[in-house]
Structures are given as C-alpha cells and as structure tokens.
Amino acid sequence: MQGKQPTGCVGAKHHFWSLTVGLNRNEKQAVVEEISAKIASAQTIALAEYRGIQVGQMTQLRSKARDQGVYLRVLKNTLARRAVEGTAFSGLANDMTGPLIYAISDDAVAAAKVLSDFAKGNDKLVIRGGNYAGKPLDKAGVAALANIPTREVLLSQLMGIMQAPVSGFARALAALAEKNGGGAAAEEAAAPAEAG
Question: What is the pLDDT at residue 93?
Fold first, then answer.
C-alpha cells in the first residue's frame, strides 16, 4: 500500500498522509549511507531539540549552516544511531531521543557555533549535546566549543603574530636610516646587497 493514496481521502488528508508515510528500506539505507559519509570526515556533531520552531526560523538556521559549511538535517534517531555505529561518535547514540536536528561539520567549531548562535536568539532551539573528535560534550561543552575562534580567525591571528617581528624589524631599520642621515644610509645598505 506504500506509495498509494488510501481510498476515501480528500486533498487535505492526502497531503497529511504523504507527509507521514515512512521511508522504505532502500531510502533508509540511502540516508544512513549519506550520514555515514558526512560523519567519516567530520570533527564535530552537535544535537539540538527544535520543538516549536517556525518554518521561517528553520529556514534561517539552514541558511546560516550552509554559509558555514555545516551539514544540518532533521533525522530519524534510529537512522542516526545506525550511522554513528562503530565511529568515534558512537557515544552520542544515548542522547539521540526526541525531535533532534543534527549539525555535522568537518571544521571543529562550525557545527557548535551555528547551533549556539541560533539558540541565543531563539529559546525554542535547545542544545542537547554533541561530540568533538570522539569526546562527548554536554550543553556547556558545546557552548565552550562554539566560543573558540574559527580556523580562519586563528590563522589570521597567527599570521599577525608571525609578521609582528618582521614589521618591527623593518620599522627599526627605517628609524635607524632616518637617524643616520635619511635615505642615503638606506641606499648604501641596499647597494651592497644588490651587488652580491
């Protein structure tokens, strides 16, 4: 009977019926394979309960997740449990109850940050926990992970630290050249370097 409309259904009932029909075995397997592929390269999974969130708000959350490279999906918990079986994230299986949205990211911080930032402005999204590189995280752990700067921010900070001695040395040379008679000393210092 799967895939066919029950007799006697009218349009509104048909729409509801089509939303509540379960996945067949092949579709379930496809979902598990898709999630398993995402998990294989993931560093972080964060879980949140989403009861009462309006469709427009969920659309905003999905958009923010896409922008941050976070895979965000509402899943059947049984399928999510199958996907994490035998992985570093298998400890999450006990937390997979109720209506959950799953955020999965290759970046260590992104999944936690997307859910935490959204939860700050929407009390209907409740962080339940997560897992980072095989280590379980409670709600506070997810929030702490979300507060770590992103990889791009950390790299730019590192570049600033690495450039500071070089730019300081350049400023010291410029000051020394200025003190010793202006540009002539700097030209003399540059001439032997070019000749060699």
Answer: 86
